[in-house]
Amino acid sequence: MSDILFSHSYYYKLDPKQWKNKTPFPPLGTLYAAALMRKNGYNVDLFDTNLLDSPFAIAPILSTLKPKYLVIYDDGFNYLTKMCLTNMRDACFSMIGLGKKNGCMVIVCSSDATDHYEKYLKKGADYIIQGEGELTLLELINALDANGDTEHIPGIVSYENAVAKVHPKRAVLQNLDELPMPAWDLADIKRYRKIWQQSGQEFTLNMATTRGCPYKCNWCAKPIYGNRYNSHSPEYIAKHLAFLSQKYGVNRFWMCDDIFGLKPNWVKEFNSALEERDLKIRYYIQSRVDLLLKEDTIDALAKSGLEEVWVGAESASQKILDAMDKGTKVAQIYEATRLLKEKNIRVALFLQFGYPGENPEDIAKTIAMVKDLQPDNIGVSVSYPLPGTKFYENVKNDLKLKVNWKDSDDLEMMFNGSFQSPFYKKLQRFVHKEYRKSQGVFNLKQVLQHPGQMSMRKAKSILKLGYYIPGAYMDAVDLKKLRDER
Known about the structure:
Layout: E1 3-7, H1 16-21, H2 28-39, E2 43-47, H3 59-65, E3 69-73, H4 79-82, H5 86-101, E4 105-109, H6 111-115, H7 117-122, E5 127-129, H8 134-146, E6 156-160, E7 163-166, H9 189-199, E8 205-207, E9 210-211, E10 230-231, H10 234-248, E11 252-255, H11 266-276, E12 282-287, H12 289-292, H13 297-303, E13 306-314, H14 318-323, H15 330-342, E14 346-353, H16 360-373, E15 377-382, H17 390-395, H18 421-449, H19 456-463, H20 465-485
Parallel strand pairs: 1-2, 1-3, 3-4, 4-5, 8-11, 11-12, 12-13, 13-14, 14-15
Antiparallel strand pairs: 5-6, 6-7, 9-10
């Protein structure tokens, strides 16, 4: 069988904000595709770009291995790849060129290539795989190896007579347990662990229990797994976790599903599967407040080892949540946070500013919510239009010279919002300072009331008030100037 060199086009070092965190994850989606091809008899290798800083590092690998196929297969479970960052696009273009220079057939599967296939074909890619890629890749390479006839393969785009031909979409895979476990042996786990040691956090691996999301938030792009929801069985996931625990000594996991545990009774069955294996893990997830408030959901999550939930709160303005088609209520954010904290589960809030129609009063409500709820962490961004979303269609006429961020900390406003980019970039910093300031004040009050509860964490938080109080004040002054300039 032919040799396949797998790679992908996300480089943590080209995304300074993410590299600073020192918490990289192996390319899970790429490892799934490699495992399927290997199961079907192909010789596979991986050039993992995550921890590198230049696409040109692949050149000597291509020269040495001389693979027939270079498959640039992005990790669709990593939300950073769905952001279609131009730093990563440019890196992919360079890799395509190097692949062609070394005589490879180049196949690309990514969110950005799905949305902008012509850009990738013009750079020399032979085939673009749109959407979920494993079965399409297998069928495509089988056909290329057999007779080269790809006419009837769904899910691909290629040039035919200098014109891009888009084939019909492929039906999504429903029984996810048909897939072999990812080819973890291709990733340099020791190297990932070494980077995590610099973060001061326990080494953590990524796991996907589902594909897709059935909710219809109108700013959320779903170019790979779509607006559906299919799950692995709890037994498959428990077996997978047991393998990673035994093989690599890892017992903490990032469940990178768009929405974890939506299927009725899945979490309870998952907990039972863990108990049957006497497997003790800790994990963190993304979820929705309305889902968390369903009967016994939080109890079942806590019993199975949940440590932290990242909640897509977005805004404390019901007007904005409704405009986003979020389908949640502000009151649910408050209630879910309260119940999670009662179970000693950490709560982190995703916040989004700049959505069309947002005004200073809406922004103030969101900041007030952060102070009220005292979450354990926050992630702040601005509204970012991506192809395939209702939001994108509403603002696409505003998109001119720049339509993608260069990295995840770009925060550029690319449409005509209530304010300009400098305001939102300053707002992002201000909200973080207000958040840290409110944490310090909260901890100071606790310690004054109960001196015996002092800890190193609380002491640091209180001491940092000397930075955050004046810093937040100066940012507030700057924000007022920027708002008035509008």
